[in-house]
Amino acid sequence: MDRKSFLTTIGFGVMGFVGSIFGSIGFNSKKSNELCAPSDPSSSTNFGIVTTPSVSDNYQNSIGAAGSLRGTNTYGSMAHPPFFIKEDYTERFYFPPNFSNSKNRTKDFNLNLFPLSVNIAHNVNYQAWTFDGIVPGPILRANLGDKLRIHVKNSSPDPHSLHFHGTHDPMEDGWEPIPAFGERTYNIEAGPIGLHPYHCHVPPLMVHTAKGLYGALLVDPPIKRKPAHEFVLTFSGWDTKGQGKNDFYTWNGIAGIYDRYPMKVPVGERVRFYIQNMMEREPVMTFHLHAQTFDIIRSLGSIVPDGHSDVVTIGQTERVVIEFVLKKKGRYMFHPHQTHMAENGGMGWIVAV
Hints:
Elements (H helix, E strand, L loop, with lengths): L2 H20 L34 H4 L33 E2 L10 E16 L2 E8 L7 E5 L3 E8 L8 E2 L18 E7 L4 E6 L5 H6 L3 E7 L8 E10 L9 E4 L5 H4 L2 E3 L4 E8 L6 E6 L4 E4 L9 E3 L1 E5 L3 E7 L4 E6 L3 H8 L1 E5 L1
Parallel strand pairs: 2-5, 4-9, 10-13, 12-20
Antiparallel strand pairs: 1-10, 2-3, 5-7, 6-8, 8-9, 10-11, 13-18, 14-17, 14-19, 15-16, 15-18, 19-20
């Protein structure tokens, strides 16, 4: 590296670091009763997202090979979000402490399934199959015992289906294909409490899941959990080169989304992560939080912690709930402890303020 390139790299690294700390806060409200929604913008508790300044021409010019950004991440990440993805992308994955789910005992959801080219990283488009045009699909949230009617429209030339993890009538299990341009309504009872992935179950299953057909159903207990800043995190791998192996990794569908737009939470308040691993082609990933340990709730149907650590291992389609309190202001890194996953999109930050 010559002297000019070295100084350029250092300069942009400082710009990215300073910008991520002193960015403005953004949040708005586009809420339904059942889908994940942010808090009211007029609320005084406006947490969940911290922004960075708009991208400058110099920052744009720091793009390196394969979409990397030279010097913008001191930990060597080589995957970053597309520049047009803004902080409001993360809103649907955050529930504020005062969130209250609909008390309707019967809840109706509609999912439209269709192919779409999605942007998973800077200069990286992927021909995905989607629920409602987004990956992961919409977060469905219900109370234990609610009757759920999920109407699925397959607006695709390929057969697909909708399979929920959890307990339900086997006639509603979702392994039977919905034919191309067909429709079906699934009727299930929400339970047990906890996080349940949903995904297409048409063979070859790896292809249908890896191309983006998955989402999350969150089932709340009859007695509410302690108030917390809640985030639903879905981890995924992407084979963008068609070589049978993952080369990008994402939290909630975008590589490096929480690197550019860290989560923002207040010091001393409870934080709860609902984490699921929907990665294909690799059997396991880990979640590691820097500078803070957390309670672990693995058992479905329970709100009582059954472990405590700073790292937890999650197999394919497994999920875990973790809870913690950040007692000091600062930036807390999180990432898989599989280094190639962290370096290629899986690293993020929580900012305690």
